[in-house]
Amino acid sequence: MRYFQLIAAQSGPIRRSCRLRYLVLGGLLALGSRPAPTQAQAQAGPSVSAAVATLLRPAAVFDGQEMHAGWVVLVENDKITAAGPAAQVVSPPSARTLELPGLTLLPGLIEGHSHLLLHPYNETQWDDQVLLESQALRVARATVHAQRTLLAGFTTIRDLGTEGAGFADVGIKQAINQGIIPGPRLLVVTRALVATGSYGPKLSVDENVPQGAQEADGVDGIIRAVREQIGKGADIIKVYADYRWGPDGSAQPTFSQEELTLIVQTARSTGRGVVAHASTPEGMRRAILAGVETIEHGDGGTPEIFALMKKKGVALCPTVAASDAVAQYRGWHKGTDPTPLRIQQKHQSMAAALKAGVTLAQGGDVGVFPHGDNAREAELLVRDYGLTPLQVLRQATSGNAQIFHLADRGRVAPGLLADLVAVVGDPTQDVAALRQVQMVMKGGVLYRQP
Ligand SMILES: [Zn+2]
Predict the structure, then answer these.
(1) Is the bond preceding residue 37 a cis peptide, omega within 30 degrees?
(2) Nearest-CA neighbor of 408 among 396, 395, 398, 393?
(3) CATH no. of 109-374
(4) Domain 2-108+411-448 grouped into CATH 2.70.180.10
(5) How far is the CA of 188 from the centre of ligand 1 (A)?
(6) Which residues does the UniProt record annotate as the domain Amidohydrolase-related (predicted)?
(7) How far is the CA of 156 from the centre of ligand 1 (A)?
(8) CB 295 within 8 A of CB 287
(9) pTM confidence score
(10) What residue ranges do the domains of the chain occupy?
């Protein structure tokens, strides 16, 4: 039903303000002879949707692994039903064709690390966002962030923490799923877990100020917090395995090995995975041994730690775009100034991770920099860290889907969700093509078209 419900959301200010047309495929049919289904018709259900078929005819298809020139893709309702050489794909007589000349069609991109409820730190410092901005203000921003993310071609995002906005990510996800606002499919963590005293903001010692994540400690406290987040709608549990609370302000481990293991066990028994923010060798080591699925950041990773990650099958989401953005916010004039120490360290740890063969998830920590600018991570991985466009394209599609257990997306293949994006040129040759998004489809619904 979701895609018909979207019809109701397509009229009015949203459509005018962004000059984009949100069309269901039924709407596209209206470009021919048949009127778009009305909401009343939509409520009639499958008999209407059965007629909705569209043949997408791009210059080439990147299927999540390889490029295929001359392929076409058939979409029926919210799924891909065929993909292959034009001569081999038989489309129903009722199908309409969407010509995409000069474009490469690829699976909807998957963002591995975002915070829809944050906006760039050079606009407002993180502390002030957490302490001074109301939840209503933050949610209002987040709805715009969700829209920008989707229109940039990211049809799924792993949103790793509301950073003080409670469980608001759950409601945003519901609003998207109910067709109230346009946005990507969300995997949410709600509040994330931190050890008492380790996180921020920190003001006077006399004041207990709201924190950017949920404090929990010890056996009872941790089990309760994990279950509470799950009960409120967390798809994944996020834990901060280290943070900047050393005597000198350096990052140091937070939770004990026992606590981290308990977090993973508690989440896993409900079928959920755990991701860990970690940048110190010891924080990473504990998180890996506890059984987390991905390590976020990993700046201080050593060859030994990356060997352990490889052995345990833990993926690294390096968030190079956030490191790059923060360094520039702190005054680094990239291209002119010498490379800051933290960025040099990032290069060293990334080189070590790649050498160890660690699987990379792709996620930029969007929110630190603008939502909709998600492609920045892929660009930097190619331009500054030596990956190939093909590698980063695989990461952002089939790779992330596999790491995040999303078997229904990340590739162009029959039976998968019709989450598809078309870009100008060949993104496997030039990563900048990811900036040239001309078409965005999510679940068979067109949100952007050439
Ligand atoms: Zn983050």
Answers:
(1) no
(2) 398
(3) 3.20.20.140
(4) no
(5) 12
(6) 104-445
(7) 16
(8) yes
(9) 0.90
(10) 2-108+411-448, 109-374
